[in-house]
Design brief:
The chain is an alpha/beta fold. Helices cover about 35% and strands about 15% of the residues. The longest helix is centred in the last third of the chain and has 18 residues. The chain is elongated.
């Protein structure tokens, strides 16, 4: 995700014939010698009978991947005199590509993050395979030139590279859809569950984290799967960030909000990222979108606790002996869980046989600090009631778009990430709403963190109604949607605020 420029230096000198790659190259990079040799010969070029040395500078930076092949081949052709440099040279051109043995130039993973780093250093163009052109064209003021085969570099005339190497070859990939695949669930297909549907609308409009709790079979998973149909499209910088993550992960060109749903058996490295090759995890792949944890109580506790940092900061820091890697992870968490290990607790007509300590241990899998970072806590009842006027996906999408536009005009982050002074500045309360919020806090129902949580949700409720100031009704509804399960009034607390 954080590109580093590498200068590929090629020397063709005297000595016994050989091909050496130095400069912190991994075995995959060194294997490029054989790919380059075969590709040059099959493209009609001569491989020099001399000592060829390739240095990847800076040498102290570990290097891996196959994207150095094209630069090594190009440098070798220039150093051996088989090509002449174009007008202006190659100083402002990023060269990326893997070589097939027959001379074809193949696309590589991570082209967009690499191009972002090169653009920040003053580069103005890139020479890549046709399969990487579409993602690089997302960059404004960036010239993309494609090379389908090495043979296109061979041409008579004073500047063969300038004339033919930039010819576009092959078709460009189309944008990918959701990784989850399949048709999303629509709100019209879900019977009842008005409170949960309202919570989904708040998630889509304000980016609030959500926990759905209830017995099996009441539609918790189906509610989560209805969320992709409500998400607004990506725009501006978020769209570029999403494409960069997908490029680095080898997912191709992806421009839609992701919806990642890992299985509860996923390991810490699979969710957070890491491993020997430092691959991004599900939390990073869900950047700018939704991380859906179905049956969150079944995930390993260390996996759930590791999500606390990205929920707070929007990024993951992986420390290694050679340094620290920062991965983007600004996702919205949507989780579901049962009320006990056997799942019968709260289900109509069923008897839970779990012992009290088993229920307590099961609930403790989602720790207090983690629950405190989740804005919306909604109980999904066992017997859904049909609404008088069922929610419709098209209507919700329209309200979500209006609410997002109001947030964009205010200039701050999405409502689910408002904190402190910025929250108070961008979410003004009417006098009665302020008094209601203060009474809840004074009665002992709200900590400072949960007060801000309720304030954020009330801000989104007002946005959905197109109001700039938050009313007392917004606070009252937010109190119902933000309450954790089994919230009871404290001893001696103020009467009249028992959530029901």
């Amino acid at each position: 995700m954080e590109g580093r420029l590498v200068d590929v230096q090629v020397d063709v000198g005297r000595g016994l014939p050989g091909f050496t790659v130095v400069g912190g190259a991994s075995p995959v990079v060194r294997e490029g010698r054989d790919r380059v040799r075969s590709a040059l010969r099959n493209a009609g070029f001569a491989f020099p009978a001399a000592r060829v040395t390739v240095n990847l500078a800076p040498a102290g930076l570990p290097k891996g991947g196959t994207h150095f092949d094209l630069a090594m081949a190009l440098g070798l052709l220039l150093a051996s005199g088989q090509l002449r440099p174009p007008a202006g040279g190659w100083e402002e051109t990023l060269v990326l590509g893997e070589l097939a043995l027959d001379g074809r130039v193949l696309p590589v993973h991570g082209a967009l993050p690499m191009a972002l780093a090169a653009r920040a250093r003053g580069f103005r163009r890139a020479l890549v395979a046709p399969g990487n052109a579409a993602e690089l064209e997302l960059l404004p003021d960036w010239e993309v030139r494609t090379l389908e085969r090495l043979a296109q570099l061979a041409s008579p005339g004073p500047a063969p590279v300038a004339k033919q190497a930039w010819a576009s070859g092959g078709s460009r990939p189309r944008a990918r859809g959701e990784e989850a695949g399949g048709r999303p669930v629509l709100l019209e297909e879900i019977v009842g569950q008005a409170a949960a549907k309202k919570a989904l609308e708040l998630v889509a409009a304000g980016g609030h984290h959500l926990l759905l709790s209830g017995p099996p079979g009441v539609g918790k998973s189906m509610l989560g799967q209805a969320l992709p149909a409500l998400l607004p499209p990506l725009e501006g910088e978020e769209r570029l960030e999403r494409a960069a993550v997908a490029s680095a992960a080898g997912l191709g060109l992806a421009l839609e909000r992701p919806f990642r749903a890992p299985h509860h058996s996923a390991t810490l490295a699979a969710v957070i990222g890491g491993g020997a090759a430092l691959r991004p995890g599900e939390a990073t792949l869900a950047h700018t979108g939704i991380l859906f944890l179905d049956e969150a109580g079944e995930f390993a506790p260390e996996v759930l606790e590791a999500l606390r940092e990205p929920l707070e900061s929007g990024e993951i820091r992986l420390a290694r002996s050679w340094g620290t890697v920062r991965l983007p992870a600004r996702f919205t968490l949507v989780a579901t869980r049962n009320l006990c290990p056997c799942g019968r607790r709260g289900a109509p007509g069923q008897f839970c046989q779990c012992r009290p300590w088993e229920v307590q241990r099961y609930e403790a899998r989602l720790s207090g600090p983690l629950l405190d970072r989740i804005d919306l806590h909604v109980r999904v009842e066992g017997e859904p009631v049909r609404e008088f006027r069922p929610a419709r996906t098209a209507e919700v999408l329209e309200r979500v778009a209006r609410a997002r536009e109001l947030q964009r005009r205010r200039g701050g982050p999405e409502n689910g990430r408002l904190e402190g002074a910025l929250l108070r500045e961008l979410a003004p309360l009417e006098a009665e709403a302020e008094r209601t919020l203060e009474r809840l806090r004074a009665a002992g129902f709200l900590s400072l963190r949960s007060r801000d949580r309720l304030h954020r949700v009330a801000r989104t409720l007002a946005d959905l109604e197109g109001r700039e100031r938050i009313e007392a009704g917004d606070v009252a509804l937010a109190a119902q949607l933000c309450r954790p399960l089994r919230l009871e009034p404290p001893a001696g607390g103020e009467a009249g605020f028992r959530p029901a």
